[in-house]
C-alpha cells in the first residue's frame, strides 16, 4: 500500500493532537519569534538613514539600544521554543514507540515466521528518525515561511521593483531543491532497507554463534554479513554523494544570488532610486526570501528520511492484520471440549495442504496421542487450536462454539503448553517458571518436584536464582525441557495440556515422572501429547496417526 504524504501527515497529526495546546503555544512562540526577527534589518535601515547619514548621535544610540533589546528578546524566544519543541518531540516519539511496541506483539504469528528478528528490530529503530519532524531544522523552516511573508510585505513597501527582481531567483532554488529531494528520497529508502537487512544477517549469526562454530561455517557467514554490509555502505555512499551535490549546488546559488543583489541593489543606490539604509535593509531581508527553500532543503535532509521511515513503518507493521480483540468475542472461562471437523489447512506462504480433512474430538478426561512422521502437521494442529491461523477450511469448535468467535487471549489462557521450541527469558530459573502466574512457596516446591527440577535446582549455588542465559544457553537440553514442563504445570487454571515432544531430551527417570504426572493428575483435563516414541501409548485413551486415515484407539 503506497502512502501519500497526506496520509503520512495525518498519521503524525494523530499524535500531535494529544498535546495540541502545547503545540499551539509553540506556534504562538514561533510567530512572536518571526515578528521579532523581522525587526533588525528595518532598524538597521533607520540606523543608517536617520542616524549615520543624518549625523544624529541620539537617534543612533536610540536605535542601537532597540537593536540590543530585539536581539535579547529573539534569544529568549528562540530558547523557549526550542525547549518546548524538544519536550514535544520526545514525548510524541515516545507515544509512537509505545503504540508500536503494543502493536508488535499483537501481530499474527505469520509476521514473526516470515521476518528475521534483526530485520524487525532494525525497522523498529527507524522510529527514531521520526524525531526530526519536530526538530530545530523543521522549526527553522516553519519560522522562515512566516519570515518570508513578513519580509516580502516590508520589502514591497520599501521598493516594489527591486523586490520583484529579487523574487525571480526563488524558482531557481525551488527547482534545484525538488530534483535533489527526489534522488535523496530514493537513496534514503534503499539505505534504510539495506541497513535493516544487514542487521538481520548480523543478529542471525550472533544468535546462531554456537551452531556456526560447530558446523565450521564461520567464513561463509562472515562473507554473507560482509556482503550485506557492503551493500549498505554502497547505498550510504550514493546517499552521501547526492546530499553533498545538492547542498553544494544550493550554496553556490545563494552566493550567486547575493552577488545579484549587490549588482541590482548597488545600481539602484547609484541611480539614487533607494537610500543606503534601504539597501542595507534589503540585504538583511534578502536572505529571508530564499530561507524557506534553503531551510526546506536542510530540513529535507532529516525529514525526508523521517517520511520514508514513517511510510516504511506503516507499510511493514500495518500490512499484517493485527490479532485485535474487538471486545465482541466470547470470553472463555473453561474448556470442556475441543473439536476439529474436516479441517484442511495450508500455510499462507505454502502451496500444499499440511493437513487435510482432519477430525479431532476431545472432552475433559481425554488424552490424545498425536503420531506421525516429521512434517506431517502435528504442531500445526496445535497452532490451529490456539487460533494462530484463521484461513483454514472446516470447523474448529471449543465447547461447541466456533473458535473464530472466541477471544484468542482467553482461549490461550486455558492452555498449558510444552512446545518443541522452548523460549526461555534471559533471567533466573524461578522467573522463567513463574512467567505467567505467581505461585506460593508450597505450590512452587510441588512444581519443582513434579517437573523433576528440584534436585538440580538445589544443587546450584544460587538455587532457583541462577540465571539461565540467553534462551537457556547455560543449561542442558534436558534442563531447559524441565523448566518448560514446570512452567506448564505452574500455569493456573489450564484445561488443556499440550506436550509437543516434551520429553525427548529427558532421562528415563524424569520421563517416567512426567508420565506419572500426566496419568494421575490430568484426569479431568484434555491432554494432547505429540511423541514419536511408544512411551505414552499406555496412558492415552486415543491415538491419532496422521499417516493413517483412521484413529487407532478409541
Ligand atoms: N510458518 C510456516 N510457514 C510455512 N510452512 C510451515 C510453517 N510451519 C510449518 N510449516 C510446514 O508445515 C508442515 C508441518 O509442520 P509441523 O511443524 O506441523 O510438523 P510436525 O508434524 O509437528 O513435525 P515434527 O514431527 O518434525 O515436529 C511442514 O512441512 C513444515 O515445513
From TrEMBL:
- Matching InterPro entries, A to Z? AAA+_ATPase, ABC1_TM_dom, ABC1_TM_sf, ABC_transporter-like_ATP-bd, ABC_transporter-like_CS, P-loop_NTPase, Type_1_exporter
Q: Which residues form the ABC transmembrane type-1 domain?
A: 24-295
Looking at the UniProt record for this protein, which Gene Ontology cellular component terms does it annotate, in alphabetical order?
plasma membrane
**Membrane-crossing residue ranges in chain numbering:** 20-43, 63-88, 133-156, 162-181, 249-269
Annotated membrane topology is: Multi-pass membrane protein
What are the record keywords, sorted? ATP-binding, Membrane, Nucleotide-binding, Transmembrane, Transmembrane helix
Where would I find the ABC transporter domain in this sequence?
338-552
A single GO molecular function, which one? ABC-type oligopeptide transporter activity
Write down a Pfam family by its short name: ABC_membrane
Q: Does the keyword Transmembrane apply?
A: yes
Report the subcellular localization.
Answer: Cell membrane
Q: Would the keyword Manganese be found if you checked this record's keyword annotation? A: no
Its protein name is: ABC transporter related
Amino acid at each position: 500500500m503506497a502512502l501519500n504524504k497526506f496520509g503520512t501527515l495525518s498519521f503524525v497529526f494523530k499524535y500531535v493532537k494529544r498535546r495540541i495546546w502545547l503545540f499551539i503555544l509553540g506556534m504562538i512562540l514561533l510567530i512572536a519569534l518571526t515578528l521579532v526577527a523581522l525587526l533588525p534589518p528595518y532598524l538597521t535601515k533607520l540606523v543608517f538613514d536617520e542616524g549615520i547619514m543624518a549625523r544624529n548621535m541620539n537617534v543612533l544610540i536610540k536605535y542601537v539600544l532597540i537593536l540590543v533589546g530585539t536581539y535579547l528578546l529573539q534569544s529568549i524566544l528562540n530558547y523557549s521554543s526550542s525547549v518546548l519543541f524538544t519536550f514535544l518531540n520526545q514525548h510524541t516519539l515516545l507515544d509512537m514507540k509505545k503504540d508500536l511496541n503494543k502493536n508488535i506483539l499483537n501481530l499474527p504469528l505469520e509476521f514473526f515466521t516470515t521476518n528475521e528478528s534483526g530485520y524487525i528490530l532494525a525497522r523498529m529503530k527507524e522510529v527514531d528518525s521520526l524525531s526530526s519532524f519536530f526538530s530545530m531544522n523543521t522549526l527553522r523552516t516553519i519560522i522562515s515561511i512566516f519570515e518570508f511573508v513578513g519580509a516580502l510585505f516590508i520589502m514591497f513597501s520599501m521598493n516594489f521593483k527591486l523586490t520583484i527582481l529579487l523574487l525571480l531567483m526563488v524558482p531557481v532554488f525551488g527547482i534545484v531543491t525538488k530534483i535533489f529531494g527526489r534522488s535523496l528520497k530514493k537513496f534514503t529508502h534503499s539505505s534504510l532497507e539495506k541497513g535493516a537487512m544487514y542487521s538481520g544477517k548480523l543478529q542471525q549469526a550472533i544468535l546462531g554463534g554456537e551452531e556456526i562454530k560447530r558446523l565450521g561455517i564461520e567464513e561463509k557467514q562472515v562473507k554473507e554479513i560482509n556482503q550485506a554490509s557492503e551493500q549498505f555502505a554502497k547505498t550510504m555512499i550514493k546517499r552521501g554523494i547526492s546530499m553533498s551535490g545538492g547542498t553544494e549546488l544550493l550554496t553556490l546559488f545563494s552566493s550567486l544570488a547575493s552577488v545579484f543583489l549587490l549588482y541590482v541593489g548597488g545600481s539602484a543606490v547609484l541611480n539614487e532610486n533607494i537610500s543606503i539604509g534601504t539597501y542595507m535593509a534589503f540585504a538583511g531581508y534578502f536572505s529571508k526570501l530564499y530561507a524557506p527553500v534553503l531551510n526546506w532543503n536542510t530540513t529535507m535532509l532529516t525529514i525526508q528520511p523521517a517520511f520514508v521511515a514513517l511510510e516504511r513503518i506503516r507499510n511493514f507493521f500495518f500490512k499484517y492484520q493485527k490479532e485485535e480483540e474487538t471486545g465482541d468475542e466470547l470470553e472463555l472461562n473453561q474448556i470442556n471440549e475441543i473439536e476439529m471437523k474436516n479441517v484442511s489447512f495450508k500455510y499462507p506462504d505454502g502451496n500444499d495442504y499440511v493437513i487435510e480433512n482432519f477430525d479431532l474430538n476431545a472432552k475433559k478426561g481425554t488424552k490424545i496421542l498425536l503420531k506421525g512422521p516429521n512434517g506431517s502437521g502435528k504442531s500445526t494442529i496445535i497452532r490451529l487450536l490456539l487460533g494462530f491461523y484463521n484461513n483454514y477450511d472446516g470447523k474448529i469448535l471449543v465447547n461447541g462454539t466456533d473458535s473464530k468467535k472466541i477471544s484468542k487471549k482467553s482461549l490461550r489462557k486455558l492452555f498449558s503448553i510444552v512446545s518443541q521450541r522452548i523460549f526461555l527469558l534471559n533471567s533466573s530459573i524461578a522467573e522463567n517458571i513463574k512467567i505467567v502466574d505467581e505461585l506460593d512457596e508450597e505450590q512452587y516446591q510441588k512444581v519443582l518436584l513434579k517437573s523433576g527440577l528440584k534436585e538440580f535446582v538445589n544443587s546450584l549455588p544460587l538455587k532457583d536464582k541462577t540465571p539461565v542465559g540467553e534462551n537457556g544457553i547455560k543449561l542442558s537440553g534436558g534442563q531447559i525441557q524441565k523448566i518448560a514442563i514446570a512452567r506448564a504445570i505452574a500455569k493456573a487454571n489450564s484445561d488443556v495440556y499440550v506436550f509437543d515432544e516434551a520429553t525427548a531430551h529427558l532421562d528415563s527417570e524424569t520421563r517416567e515422572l512426567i508420565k506419572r504426572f500426566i496419568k494421575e493428575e490430568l484426569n479431568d483435563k484434555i491432554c494432547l501429547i505429540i511423541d514419536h516414541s511408544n512411551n505414552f501409548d499406555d496412558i492415552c485413551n486415543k491415538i491419532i496417526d496422521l499417516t493413517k486415515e483412521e484413529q487407532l484407539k478409541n
